[in-house]
Design goal:
The complex is a heterodimer of chains A (81) and B (283). With 81 residues, chain A is α+β, with helices and mostly antiparallel strands. Helices cover 20% and strands 44% of the residues of chain A. Chain A has one domain: Viral Envelope Glycoprotein, domain 2. The termini of chain A are far apart. Chain B has 283 residues and is of the alpha/beta class. In chain B, the strands form 2 sheets. In chain B, strands 1-5-4-2-3 form a 5-stranded parallel beta sheet. Chain B has a 4-stranded parallel beta sheet with strand order 8-7-9-10. The longest helix of chain B is centred in the middle third of the chain and has 16 residues, at 88-103. Classes of the chains: A alpha+beta (81), B alpha/beta (283). Chain A binds chain B through residues 1-12, 14, 16, 24, 29, 31, 33, 38, 40, 42-43, 45-52, 69, 72-73, 75-81, and chain B through 32-33, 39-40, 43-44, 88-90, 117, 120-121, 123-132, 169-173, 175-184, 186, 191-192, 201-203, 242, 279-280.
Chain lengths: 81, 283
């Protein structure tokens, strides 16, 4: 059935935590697939994924995702209501 | 404790593990981040790209009927296939796909409760292998437009008590403090909400693990804002995918009679010349 035949694997070390970046709440998810750590960051409200990173360690993956998240969140304008 | 009106519309991750190889089941991953599938996906799942495959790529519209039929055929889906949709961001675009499949009359299409997030968190099997799919024959029905709201209908409902307008964006998008979710590009000229809309962010329907809240909790959430099952309800967000999620909750988990997704959403209303806009908190 499978074209590639590379087999299956399981995500490991799934961790989720909250933090702040550029004045916004963020949700940081990281996990390991094979030998690679993956990190995804969403903006909590509304929960849209805004950045991701990969690395040989969790710290590397998070640092890349945080760099992107900070860059993007810093561009968000606030208006008086 | 109450139960969902249509519990058959949801499967859990354990069900998918058990049934993913059933010949009449087709798993489809639909992500906001269209590269997520390549990292690893549920074995046997194919992927649809919301950006190119689940819309009209020329004018702004849902996928045309013929394209939907062709997509089903290429995906090995016939009219009797059980389709299980799942994806990232708590199934935002999986719900978008489900909404469109229901419009075109597919009988058996369901969501995997908790989506990709729950599958990963539970450490379940993934693969990078893409399944070989045998083409099928598929006959799409004409779209059921009772599931969709267009601008004139929404204009009729604004500020009136006859219909419930549900704004499922974040509170800051609702008030007009921001023009797009933090970190995403602005896609409208004006911030705020449609006059009379209730602010019920989509995420309030979910638990921390991405699964849907109980029927009792959902009933209390929506009825607490005056969104009742005997009314016509129109859900909207920014581009129509988050509101598909809420549409699913109201239609299938709570069994509301008449629920529509306004997929024009704030990218239409917030760019419309002379459209009335309300700012600030819900009134």
């Amino acid at each position: 059935m499978n074209a590639g035949g590379q087999g299956t694997f399981r995500p490991k070390e799934y961790v989720e935590r909250r933090d702040r970046a550029s004045g916004w709440d963020i949700n940081i998810v990281s996990y390991k697939l094979g030998k690679v750590y993956h990190c995804e960051i969403d903006n909590v409200s509304p929960g849209a994924k805004i950045a991701k990173g990969e690395g040989d360690t969790r710290e590397e993956a998070e640092a890349e995702a945080l760099r992107q998240a900070n860059e993007r969140l810093a561009k968000t304008r606030r208006f008086p209501t | 404790m109450g139960t969902y009106a249509h519990p058959e519309m949801l499967v859990d991750t354990a069900w998918v593990t058990k049934h993913r190889s059933d010949p009449n089941v087709r798993l489809v991953e639909v992500d906001v981040d269209t590269s997520a599938y390549e990292q690893g996906h549920v074995p046997g799942a194919i992927a649809w790209n919301w950006n190119t495959q689940l819309c009209d790529t020329v004018r702004r519209d849902i996928i045309p009927k013929d394209n939907l039929g062709r997509l089903m055929e290429e995906s090995g889906i016939d009219n009797n296939t059980t389709v299980i949709l799942y994806g990232d961001n708590n199934n935002w675009f999986a719900a978008w796909a489900l909404w469109q499949m229901k419009m075109y009359g597919h009988q058996d299409v369901r969501l995997m409760n908790g989506g990709r997030k729950k599958w990963l968190a539970e450490g379940r099997e993934l693969t990078k292998d893409v399944p070989n799919v045998k083409e099928t024959r598929y006959k799409a029905k004409d779209p059921d437009l009772s599931l969709r709201a267009f601008l004139p209908e929404v204009q009729k409902y604004q500020s009136k008590n006859g219909a419930g307008l549900v704004d499922v964006r974040s509170p800051q998008e609702f008030t007009g403090e921001i023009l797009a979710p933090p970190g995403l590009p602005e896609t409208c000229q004006r911030g705020g909400h449609i006059p009379g809309a209730k602010s019920i962010p989509w995420g309030q329907a979910c638990n921390e693990d991405g699964t849907f809240k109980s029927a009792d909790e959902l009933k209390s959430l929506y009825e607490g804002h005056g969104i009742r099952p005997d009314k016509t309800v129109v859900a909207y967000c920014r581009i129509g995918e988050r509101s598909s999620h809420t549409w699913f909750v109201l239609k299938y988990l709570l069994g509301y009679r008449d629920v529509k997704n306004y997929d024009g959403s704030w990218t239409e209303w917030g760019n419309l010349v002379q459209a009335p806009v309300e700012r600030g908190a819900e009134r």
